[in-house]
Write a structure and sequence with these properties.
By secondary structure, the protein is mainly alpha-helical. The protein has a single domain, classed as Tetracycline Repressor, domain 2 (Orthogonal Bundle). 80% of the residues lie in helices and 0% in strands. It contains 10 helices and no strands. α1 crosses α4 and α8 packs antiparallel against α9.
């Protein structure tokens, strides 16, 4: 039952917002009593922590899955963006924005965990892109990762509407890719923009 509550709460938090969804809402959606939820979670904050851990695990799984699919490095970034867009498309407000505004301590924990995973994935993507000729050999890998991460997380943490965040995140991805690409990488970028427009 605990896992079912976490799954339903995660779905509702991402769709409707961490602040607006109440324990009553979750209980009503699941046709269970609020008392049942409190048997597993002493308060809403603990449930939000569990929900964000579920999202964190999903992010890790997506990164692993994408690396196994054999996409080229530029294509891989667009595929990841497409996947996350699918997860968050029903949300009106950005989940990270909501967390930062209403649950800052949980937000800090989430960011700390995500940063390590994102850096690991981006480093792999950049090093492979250089090796395969998509990114320039003189690319400063560490600073490129830091710049791109800082831009994207600033957008998702400070942009209220999810659709606006997604548009800005696409612009950041294009900016990042253009900055480090070889002609081969730019050709693939144009191809991805045509496919994903």
């Amino acid at each position: 039952m605990k896992e079912k509550i976490i799954a339903k709460a995660t779905e509702m938090f991402l769709k409707l917002g961490f602040k607006s969804v109440t324990m009553d809402d979750i209980a009503g959606e699941m046709c269970i009593s609020k008392k049942t939820i409190y048997k597993f979670f002493c308060n809403k904050e603990v449930l939000i922590e569990e929900a964000t851990e579920t999202v964190h695990q999903t992010v890790n799984d997506v990164f692993e899955c994408m690396q196994e699919k054999g996409y080229n490095p530029v294509e891989e970034n667009f595929e990841i963006r497409k996947y996350f867009k699918g997860i968050f498309q029903s949300a009106e407000t950005s989940p990270l924005y909501q967390l930062r505004k209403h649950y800052p301590e949980i937000y800090e924990t989430v960011i700390s965990k995500e940063k390590n995973e994102c850096f690991r994935f981006m480093q792999h993507n950049l090093e492979r892109g250089i090796a395969e000729g998509y990114y320039r050999t003189d690319t400063d890998v560490e600073n490129s990762i830091d710049f791109y991460y800082t831009i994207t997380f600033h957008i998702s943490s400070n942009t209220a509407l999810e659709k606006d965040a997604q548009a800005k995140e696409l612009a950041a991805l294009v900016y990042h890719t253009r900055a480090i690409s070889t002609p081969k990488g730019l050709e693939e970028l144009e191809k991805q923009l045509a496919i994903n427009s």
